[in-house]
Amino acid sequence: MRKNLLIIIMLFLGALCAEAQHYDRGYEAVPSSPFVKKGAWVAGGTLRYSQHLNDSHNILIISDVNSKGYSISANPKVLYMVKDNMGVGLKFSYDRSMLDLASAGLSISDISMSAKDCYQINHKFSAHAIYRAYIPFADIKRFALFADLMLGGSFKQGKAFNAGGEYVLGTYEQSYALELAVNPGVVVFLTNNLAMELNVGIFGASYSWKNQVRNQVSTGNTDLTSAGFMVNLLSIGVGLSYYFL
Asked: What values do phi and psi take at 235, rounded to 5?
């Protein structure tokens, strides 16, 4: 009994000491001036383009690949600082990709398959509202952390067909999505007004649904709901922004 009472007293005193002690981790330092002032405008985004051409190319178990294609992505955004270090704005995105596969073969042990005359093209439009908060480091004006809260949706159209068999098989689809995301990052000023931004997704929630028509005869649909906390390395984005201070 005495031993249990002594343990309880020690735990109680330890809790009091921990509550009374103050830890200074440097978060309470208030910058003398904001990182981005109220009334400033921020415009920027990313642009990406890639193209490929395969002529009898071999990739591990895939052989004799003859294909061509491209992908393009444009993501402009604009922000207005409604308060010091806090802004709201809009982000738009356009993505388009095409793949024209003339022929390809797959061989695994005694199993062999081939494909030819396959074609696919799709494009997607997206729009998101953004709330951004900057987290400066004391009086350092060269770089700071930020966090974007984005809410919006997207619309995607695509078609694909396979003419390699006896009949031409084609599929047309439309998909829609509602999305919520949290993307933290870091901004580094290269000049007084031009900055480079890097962000990565850590949380996302979405609801999407898709309508499909196959050979202009049969129809189908599907929907998907997802949410989760995770660092998505595939969503790392690097872009440039211009600050109208």
From this structure: -100, 10
This prediction has a pTM of 0.79
Structure-token pair, residue 196: 């480079």
Q: What is the pLDDT of residues 15-51, one digit of tens each?
A: 445 444 554 545 455 556 889 999 999 999 988 899 9
Site of tokens 């005495």 = 2
Handedness of CA 132, 242, 82, 26 (dihedral sign): positive
The 10s digit of each residue's pLDDT in 197-231 is 998 888 889 999 999 998 888 899 999 998 888 77
Q: Measuring CA to CA, which residue among 74, 182, 90, 70 is closest to residue 124?
A: 74
Would you state the pLDDT for residue 86?
Answer: 95
> Whole-angstrom Cα distance, residue 26 to residue 17?
21
Q: How far apart are CA 93 and CA 150, in angstroms?
A: 13
Which residues does residue 129 pair with via DSSP β-bridges, in sequence order? 90, 151
Sequence-ordered list of residues with C-beta below 8 angstroms from that of 182, at least 6 positions apart, any chain: 147, 148, 149, 150, 201, 202, 203, 204
Residue 180: both structure tokens together: 């919520």
- How far apart (Å, rounded) are the C-alpha atoms in residues 96 and 93? 10
Average pLDDT over residues 10-14: 50
